[in-house]
Amino acid sequence: MTLAIHRAQTVGSMLRPAQLREARRKLRQGALSAPEFKRLEDWAVDQALTIQERAGIDLVTDGEQRRASFLGSLLETTEGLSRDLSIRQPWHESDESVVELSLGLAVTGKLRRLRSLVCEEYAYARARTAKPLKVTLPSPLMLLMFWSPTLARPHYKDPFELFIDGASVIRAEISELVRMGCEHIQIDAPELAILIDPTARHQVFECNGIDPSRVLTEGVDLLNSLADAPGVNFGLHLCRGNNDGRWLSRGGYASISRVVFPRANRFSVLLLEYDDARSGGFEPLADIPRDKLVVLGLVSSKRRALEDKETLTARIQEAARFFPFDQLALSPQCGFASGIRGNPVDEDVQEQKLRLVAEVAHKVWHGR
After folding, report:
1. Which DSSP letter does residue 9 get?
2. Domains of the chain
3. What is the pTM of this model?
4. pLDDT tens digits, residue range 295-305?
5. In the chain, which residue ranges form alpha helices assigned H by DSSP?
């Protein structure tokens, strides 16, 4: 298929308005009806689309406004998960400060899809924008964040059996999106970037009995199997962790690039984080097959400070030493609200960052 090139992109989530967060709390407490909540949710999606369009973004999302986090409403849409705070991972608040946090779920049964995660998102947003629209889905390997040998082993002897069931859930979502005409689907895969950091790899994988080498082979093959629908541009986002401004892993992509990039050959778009010194250099881009689009996440969604336009332009030129200039694009490094509360930036800064992405991308590639 022809490679679709959108120079200015978002990654996925946008900050959820305070009214929406409060409405979600009231809905859980029974103080707000479902119709009232849905009207507020629709309004939040409209706002997210308007902000992206006003900023000049070329490929938009619904801002993931219908989700509590980038993982969606897994508890409500998937059987086999339970609320549980016992599974924790080390999240960095800074280079020196690390906190143990839980994403609040655990695998306690066989995984089974109950209803769609994203079809409502796409159906509504498609009718509200004339821009190309992207839908994001979590990688099935993200279920490792909810894996506890004690809780899960009665149902799964091997974590990769869980990942296979998770892939079946995501594959069903993709089938529905394709049926509805969706042309841009992105899989968010932070588990791959965890592998680049020896400390994070040990704490997240090895301490839970998960062999990292299998993730690079069986795991990548499982991800690759998802990107199998004619007429769809599939993107793979290698996130370094984004939880209310915190991060999981540090290091360059070089330790995985020669395996992951060629092996994930069905993905036409790779979205990579390059917003700080922890991300390493652009040299691993040389390992990416030349039929891909690489979206450079050079603008931080975690920090308030605006990046310098000239510096961003210079970094794009530096990346073009290792991958064709005409097959590069620009984005924030991740979403603005992958976690429940969102990153420590306000809505004005969010829009300024998106406008910066669009202005630099259009100037660099289109001369305008």
Report:
1. B
2. 18-366 (3.20.20.210)
3. 0.94
4. 999 999 999 99
5. 18-29, 34-55, 74-77, 119-126, 149-152, 159-179, 190-194, 198-204, 212-214, 220-226, 254-263, 309-319, 347-366
